[in-house]
Amino acid sequence: MSRKPRKDERHAQILEVLRYTPHVRIATLASRFGVTAETIRRDLDALSDQELLDRAHGGAVARPMGIQPPIDEREQATVDERRAIAHTAARLLEPGQVVMIDAGSTTTQLAWQLAANGQALTVITNSYPVARAMASSASRLILCPGDFNAREGGVFGQDTTDYLTRFHANIAFIGASGLTPEGILDVNRDAAWVKRTLISRSERTYLLVDHTKFAQTVLERVAPLSVLDGIVTDRAPSDAMTQRLERAGVAVHIATLEAIDSALSARASDTTAREDTA
Amino acid sequence: MSRKPRKDERHAQILEVLRYTPHVRIATLASRFGVTAETIRRDLDALSDQELLDRAHGGAVARPMGIQPPIDEREQATVDERRAIAHTAARLLEPGQVVMIDAGSTTTQLAWQLAANGQALTVITNSYPVARAMASSASRLILCPGDFNAREGGVFGQDTTDYLTRFHANIAFIGASGLTPEGILDVNRDAAWVKRTLISRSERTYLLVDHTKFAQTVLERVAPLSVLDGIVTDRAPSDAMTQRLERAGVAVHIATLEAIDSALSARASDTTAREDTA
DNA sequence: TAGCTAAATTGGTATTTACAACAAAAATGC
DNA sequence: GCATTTTTGTTGTAAATACCAATTTAGCTA
């Protein structure tokens, strides 16, 4: 390892700039540092290889800040599924309701959907990505106190659950690390306590999980299936699981990508296939 | 009324997409909608005119939400000043202290500096950007409850101030919209209340402001100068202001870009013999 | 239905960016 | 000191994008 302040310093400053603006142009950086565009290009390629930023034509864009560390291939692959789940879940709400939203990637998607719908809600959450998503909407946003966990992008702990008990919601949306006949499971003990509190403070509770969570047995059981009023997912669970859910009185909503597509772009493209070579 | 779903629908969807990813390419949008790149180009230009997004070569980037609109090239000039201020302010802390950090761009810079320093602190803040900056550090992070304000990227309100009174900090760092002989000023009433609480719950209070805040008279006076133990800024205030500060017992720390640069280079090559770092 | 108007496409050209190979310069190691 | 490695600059070419203007298409109105 050599000590070259030149390149490293540029790299650090590029990332610094990208914390304040989502996009920088190569020409801008080149003139700022007094180096050639080629050098900047190489810098950006290197940083892109380290997954610290994303390349764009003529520049670079900052990585989305929601939840950074755990974006593995599997997570990325199910992005569309989660959108579909969120879209379906959003329909369970009515204007004016008080809703509690758990921290998680799928629940964050739900928040974006709710913001897009434009319904005026009162949202209580422990997740900053959720708050950020809803920020521009007409809804009122109440955030919980607690110890900040960067991995989850939210707050947890005794303060969080204490604060939540002051409220009463019409409906709660929670996520989970696993779903088995035994109940709802999660890897994070603090998160589990928050989920239990959300469940106890809401009239109805819906679980949002994609199919990769089925039969995942992890650290801690959050609650039995019977606490749920419904689950929203992207594929039908196994027959055994479905029976269990039915017995526990849990409604199962299957979200399909077609539904969201047809709803969003009611009239997308004609049969004229265009040569989209990309 | 308007029965023109074509263009408007595209516009809405483009903005929708930009909420999920900070950058979209024209070619991507063109193939997605089944239209020509020219059409997308016009769409982006129109949306850019409405200031709903920013153009980039070959695509568009989402507007940053947390921070104020004008983050253009000129604004980036003050980024360096804020970095210097934050760097100087960070030296006022000692390991193990309890510190309260206000919401704001300069205080967010401070948080990044503290995280880089690696000191183990207990940080109490109402700002999500601050929390996120410190997230990877060894510090404990406590976040306040309250109503989420997207523009500031933090929480405010009665819940926030109530929660803060439960704590006692060694030192508080606050920002402001203006600084005059009358005292500290801010445009946001809720933010002003949070600042007052931070001041009252800390042994010492330091104000972090760049020189553009001097003589800015805005909505509300947060507090008189006398509540401060010091200010950290990038240029010396006017003589009249300096006298006032001195009379009020406020220490003035001037942060220079040279200081931070020399600190960086010293860190980079400290094994070599002491060379004159101009 | 015809005509009007906004929107979308098409074609052509100028500009910008990307990519790769190589040269120059600086730093590093011996 | 000299060779080696790393970094940066330069150049030429290909590709992608932007811009402009004319034409076609589609939606709407009278």
UniProtKB/TrEMBL annotation, chains A, B:
Transmembrane segments: none annotated. SUPFAM superfamilies: NagB/RpiA/CoA transferase-like, Winged helix' DNA-binding domain. Coiled coil: none annotated. The keyword Transcription applies. Keywords: DNA-binding, Repressor, Transcription, Transcription regulation. Residues 7-62 form the HTH deoR-type domain. One of its GO terms (molecular function) is DNA binding. Pfam families: DeoRC, HTH_DeoR. This is DeoR/GlpR family DNA-binding transcription regulator. It comes from Chromohalobacter beijerinckii. The lineage of its organism: Bacteria, Pseudomonadati, Pseudomonadota, Gammaproteobacteria, Oceanospirillales.
